[in-house]
Amino acid sequence: MMETAPGIYLTAFLVGLLGGVHCLSMCGGLVGSLTLGLDPRIRRDPLLMLPYQLTYNLARIAGYATAGALFGGLGALLLQLDAFQVMQRVLYGLAGVVMILLGLYLGGWWRLIAVVERAGAVLWRRLEPLGRRLLPVRNPLQAAALGYLWAWIPCGLVYSVLITAVATGSVLDGALVMLAFGAGTLPNLLGIGFLAGAAARISERAWVKQVAGLLVIGFGLYALWQLY
Question: Residue 44 and residue 42: Cα distance in Å, rounded?
Answer without folding.
Answer: 5
